[in-house]
Every structure is written in C-alpha cells, then in structure tokens.
Design goal:
Oligomer: single chain
Number of domains: 2
Low-confidence stretches: none
Structural class: alpha/beta
CATH superfamily of the largest domain: Dihydropteroate synthase-like
Mean pLDDT: 91
Distance between the termini: 23 Å
Largest sheet: 8 strands, parallel, barrel
CATH class of the largest domain: Alpha Beta
Number of helices: 14
CATH topology of the largest domain: TIM Barrel
C-alpha cells in the first residue's frame, strides 16, 4: 500500500469519474471535496448562536469571538467553514430561521450557484502618448500592426482607448479622443478584423463609444462604472457587453489617500447598485462584466485583499475582469521599474484565476500570458 496527498483538484467530478466511482456517488462526493469559507459581518447575536449550533450539528464550523455565548454585544463578525455539501444544507436550514438568517441563507445560495467561465485574454492598445506603460502606446497604422500581432499571439479581446486613466492623467476633450480613435476604428471596420477577435472600447464618452460600436466593437470598458445611463443604453442598443469598473474618485484624485471601512463590502455594494441600474434599463446580466479596479483608488493592501478574495464577486453571476498588468502595486511589493514587471504581473493574474474569480485577463503581454495560462491549466487536475 502506498499513499500520497492530492492538492488542488479543479474538476472534482472528472477526477472521481476517472476513479470509476459509481455514478450516483460522484456529485455527492464532489461536494464534500470542496471547502468553502465565508466571513459574515454584523450578524445579530441570537443568529450567531443559532448558526453555531446548526453548523456543528452537520459537521461544519462557525468561528466566533469570545463573549458570543453570553451575548456581550448585539452583533458579531464570524467565520463559517464547511464543505459545499455543508453549506447547501445550512442554506436550506436557515431559510426558516429568524434574526436575519433567512437573508444569510439567500446570500449563501448565490455563492453555491457560481460557475467557472472560460479564461480569455484581453490585449491593450493605448492610442495616446500618456499611458503609464510606453510599450502599450500605438497610433494609426502602428496600432493596426500591433492588433494583428496580438491576434496571432492568441488574444481573445483587444481593448482600445484614447485617453490615459493613470493617476493624475490630463483630461481630454471628447473631440480629441474621437480624433485619436477614429482611424483605428475605421481600419478595424474596413479590414473586418472584428471577425477575427472581439474589440472593446475603453471609454466613458458616448460619442466615442457609439463610433466604436458602429465599427464592429462589441464590448464597452467603462472605468466610471456605468455612472452614465447613456453608456448603458448604447451598449444595449448595439447588443454589446458592458464592463463595470470600480473606482474611488477620478483618475485625477483616486490616489489621494484612498480609504474604505471594508473594501470587500463597499466594492460589492457598488456592483450590486450598478447591476440593478443596468438591469432596470433593460440590460441582461449575462452582458455585464465586473472589474474591481486594481489601482483605481486603492492602496496596496486594498488591491491585495481584492485579489485574494476575487471569487466573492462571482456571486453576481457576471464574468470577472482583472487588470494588474505592470501596475505600481508590483513596485510597492518589490521595487522594480515598469519595464521589468512582467513576472509580477503573471503572478497576480495567475493568482486571480486560481482563486476561482477572474476569467478575463487584461494585459500588455499576450504571448507570455497565453503560455503561462496554458501551463497553469495543464497543472490543474
């Protein structure tokens, strides 16, 4: 007899089928192989005690602060730990309980419905002379050459913008933005490049967005997070997807001492509000993509928290985009110039994928990301 530990089984059902487990047992055992952890904030004390007993009764666990049992405070934070099977049982059980446990049960059920999405790579073209990474700046003919190169290297989406969103970037008139982007859009349309790859317009200006959508683009990448209803309406009109990004402040102010009471709660509430807004105007949830906005009004610790817990945002039923390519958070971890941040970028993006959250990777280096993700997928059972 020999034994070895098996780690990171991605496709649990496939693993069990290969083991020739009886058909009915595959789904049951697969749920027992996945450990889930939930941080619950401000739960009423009676609810904490009920949830603690219910968790223990089925073999799950609820980590609570001391003092809960004698109700020293009205509310407590706690940590729920259990397999997928445990959480399914609890979610059903708590639906009939008082003190806010029904709402907790409904939230848990959202997480249980999360599914993995196919990983896509989004290349970056900046049609300006101001973006923080000079290697992403391309105009007119050079932009088209770079687009064709990205397609050959395996890009699924190419994101094109004419205005820099780096910290303290200059504001640009919409006429100037359109003038920069127009020749690239015209070439994409005339060459029918949209038949070979999806194109995203990185803009929040309706005039520019509509021109791009008329040119074959099918995704709007809005760093203002759907703040303008006209942008949402344009995406609906042309049948395009809309990426909602979270940003505290504006590019001119976002890094002026950003602060959150709890960044996970605040970004999550922001997405819930903007998704409701989009759906109220007629947009399908399947057409919404979420971007937590790495580096947009966040400190290093804020960025790290979002990356570590990115799977949380899958509860909304939308694809998750991450874009940390060569950003300054890498410099804050290990001092290095922009030109030498590819390794750090790959580490962040692979972590975002392996956490079960991100499925659209916005990056400057297509070939290197295609290779890294292909190898990572091969290593995942």
């Amino acid at each position: 007899m020999k034994i070895y530990q098996v780690n990171n089984i991605k496709d649990r059902s496939k693993f069990l089928k290969n083991l020739q487990v009886h058909g009915g047992g595959v789904s049951i055992m697969a749920k027992k192989m996945e450990l889930l952890t939930f941080y619950i904030k401000d739960l009423k004390t009676p609810a904490v005690n009920i949830l603690k007993q219910d968790s223990l009764s089925i073999g799950a666990e609820l980590a609570t602060p001391s003092g809960v049992i004698i109700c020293e405070k009205d509310r407590y934070d706690c940590l729920l730990i259990g397999t997928r099977k445990h959480i399914e049982i609890l979610a059903k059980k708590e639906l009939s309980q008082p003190f806010g446990l029904k709402q907790l049960a409904l939230e848990l059920q959202k997480f249980l419905k999360v599914k993995d999405d196919k990983i896509k790579i989004m290349g970056i073209i900046n049609a300006n002379d101001d973006s923080f990474f000079s290697g992403s700046r391309f105009m007119d003919r050079d932009a088209i050459k770079e687009i064709e190169k990205m397609i050959a290297e395996g890009a699924d989406i190419i994101d094109i913008g004419a205005v820099s969103s780096r910290p303290n970037a200059d504001e640009v008139l919409e006429e100037v933005e359109l003038k920069r982007i127009k020749p690239i859009c015209d070439a994409i349309k005339s060459k029918k490049l949209y038949e070979r790859v999806s194109f995203s317009i990185d803009s929040y200006t309706p005039l520019v967005i509509e021109y791009a959508l008329k040119s074959g683009f099918n995704l709007v990448n809005d760093i203002t997070g759907a703040s303008n209803s006209e942008v949402i309406k344009l995406a609906i009109k042309y049948g395009a997807k809309l990426c909602i990004m979270h940003m505290q402040g504006t590019p001119q102010t976002m890094q002026d001492n950003p602060y959150y009471d709890d960044i996970m709660v605040e970004v999550s509430d922001f997405f819930e509000d903007r998704i409701d807004k989009c759906e109220s105007l007629g947009m399908r949830r399947d057409d919404i993509i979420l971007d937590v906005g790495i580096g947009f009004g966040k400190t290093l610790e804020h960025n790290l928290t979002l990356i570590r817990n990115m799977k949380h945002f899958k509860k909304f039923g939308c694809e998750i985009l991450v874009g940390a390519s060569r950003k300054s958070m890498i410099d804050k971890i290990i001092h290095t110039p922009i030109s030498e941040r590819l390794s750090g970028t790959l580490a962040i993006h692979l972590k975002s994928i392996s956490n079960g959250g991100a499925s659209i990777i916005r990056c400057h280096d297509i070939k290197e990301h295609v290779q890294a993700i292909s190898v990572w997928e091969s290593l995942s059972i």
